[in-house]
């Protein structure tokens, strides 16, 4: 639920934030910078929240991150009550920075799975977790579309809750709901988690320490050394293809997803005159496509025996075709389906790449003794790869794509 709220909270902002920024005296360049700031804040916070979960478990970091995200939603709502220009745009920026810090908890979900789920079931569980997050990403724009009819006067100074700033209300409500569920339902795993399968007790076990101190047995010494690999061993292992390829894959499809959700609202507005409601409906309709595709991926993986590598490869190849159609069909004065069809084709490939990439990575990490005890941290590092795509792509779109031919 926390993962779905995190994903939906991000995408509920996406369809209308450009109009919110411009309406409050901002520019397109500031729009791109604000979108990038969210992912950059998430990127910077993930190492800390990963360390915090190792020290205090999962409940406290989850609750703290959701509280920060809630404060960001409240600031997003109140930004429009400030004077247009530097004050209002600065408040929007600050709200997205807080939202990004809160969104760093996305790494906690995969780390929790790595800690509590037996190794043999991690692929299936990670696929389900990815599916839930993708559903949240797809559902966000649909929620935004429902806000098109919001018009509530607040006080006597003329400020009101409208379709643009009401997004902040949704952010606060969903994060508070997630906090309630985490507080009531999340169970802290025993230290050591899924490593119990192999008979290794939490922290390496007092018995192992006693063996080293008393008998200096070779087997026990090797086990301790294996649990604390050297930096060079770690770097050599991380540099292997089965670890680096998932990083490249998750960066690529997240960058493409960011490009589409950042560029689609202004492109559709310029090309066919669509506003926030129409773009929200179009982006929200991705949810149906993503759910259907995820069901197909689940069948291909579990029933048809298609490997993760085959799914990842075919997903990237078919995505290239969809992006080519996007390049040729998105134009001023085009028909509506010229914008909608490439959007649906490209979004249908995200589930084909997301769950298999995470599953392939989990299995690769489990198969390497040097990384076996670092599954949680490695999942956080992989999530950071997605964050890099998140804060690099919007700025690129704002500077390169959102320009007229004369510019």
TrEMBL record:
Pfam short name (any one): MFS_1
GO cellular component, one term: endomembrane system
GO MF, any single term: transmembrane transporter activity
Residue ranges of every copy of the Major facilitator superfamily (MFS) profile domain listed in the record: 1-407
Superkingdom of origin organism: Eukaryota
Membrane topology: Multi-pass membrane protein
PROSITE patterns reported for this sequence: MFS (PS50850)
First-listed, main subcellular location of the protein, grouped into a coarse class: membrane
Ranges annotated as spanning the membrane: 31-49, 61-79, 91-113, 125-147, 167-186, 281-300, 312-330, 381-402
Compartments in which it is found: Endomembrane system
SUPFAM superfamilies membership: MFS general substrate transporter
Keywords assigned: Membrane, Transmembrane, Transmembrane helix, Transport
Protein name: Major facilitator superfamily (MFS) profile domain-containing protein
Organism of provenance: Odontella aurita
């Amino acid at each position: 639920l926390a993962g779905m709220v995190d994903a939906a909270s991000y995408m509920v902002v996406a369809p209308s934030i450009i109009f919110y920024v411009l309406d409050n005296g901002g520019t397109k360049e500031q729009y791109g910078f604000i979108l990038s700031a969210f992912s950059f804040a998430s990127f910077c916070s993930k190492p800390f929240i990963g360390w915090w979960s190792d020290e205090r478990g999962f409940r406290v970091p989850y609750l703290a991150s959701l509280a920060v995200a809630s404060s960001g939603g409240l600031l997003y709502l109140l930004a429009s009550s400030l004077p247009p220009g530097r004050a209002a745009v600065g408040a929007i920026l600050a709200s997205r920075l807080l939202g990004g810090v809160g969104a760093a908890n996305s790494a906690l979900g995969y780390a929790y799975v790595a800690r509590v789920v037996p190794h043999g079931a991690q692929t299936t569980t990670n696929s389900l977790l990815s599916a839930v997050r993708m559903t949240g990403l797809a559902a966000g724009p649909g929620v935004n579309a429902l806000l098109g009819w919001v018009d509530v006067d607040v006080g006597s100074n003329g400020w009101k809750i409208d379709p643009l700033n009401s997004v902040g209300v949704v952010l606060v409500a969903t994060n508070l709901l997630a906090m309630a569920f985490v507080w009531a339902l999340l169970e802290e795993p025993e230290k050591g988690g899924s490593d119990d399968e192999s008979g290794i007790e939490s922290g390496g076990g007092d018995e192992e320490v006693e063996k080293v101190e008393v008998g200096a047995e070779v087997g026990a010494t090797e086990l301790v050394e294996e649990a604390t690999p050297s930096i060079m061993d770690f770097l050599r292992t991380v540099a292997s293809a089965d670890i680096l390829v998932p990083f490249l894959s998750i960066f690529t499809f997240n960058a493409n997803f960011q490009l589409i959700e950042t560029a689609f609202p202004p492109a559709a507005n310029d090309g066919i005159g669509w506003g926030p409601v129409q773009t929200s409906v179009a982006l929200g309709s991705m949810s149906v496509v993503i759910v259907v595709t995820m069901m197909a991926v689940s069948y291909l993986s579990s029933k048809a025996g298609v490997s993760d590598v085959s799914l990842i490869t075919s997903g990237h190849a078919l995505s290239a075709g969809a992006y080519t159609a996007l390049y040729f069909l998105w134009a001023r004065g085009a028909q509506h389906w010229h914008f909608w069809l490439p959007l649906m084709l490209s979004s249908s490939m995200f589930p084909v790449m997301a769950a298999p990439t995470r599953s392939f990575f989990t299995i690769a990490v489990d198969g390497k003794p040097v990384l076996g005890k670092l599954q949680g941290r490695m999942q956080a590092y992989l999530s950071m790869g997605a964050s890099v795509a998140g804060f690099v792509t919007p700025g690129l779109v704002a500077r390169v794509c959102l320009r007229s031919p004369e510019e």
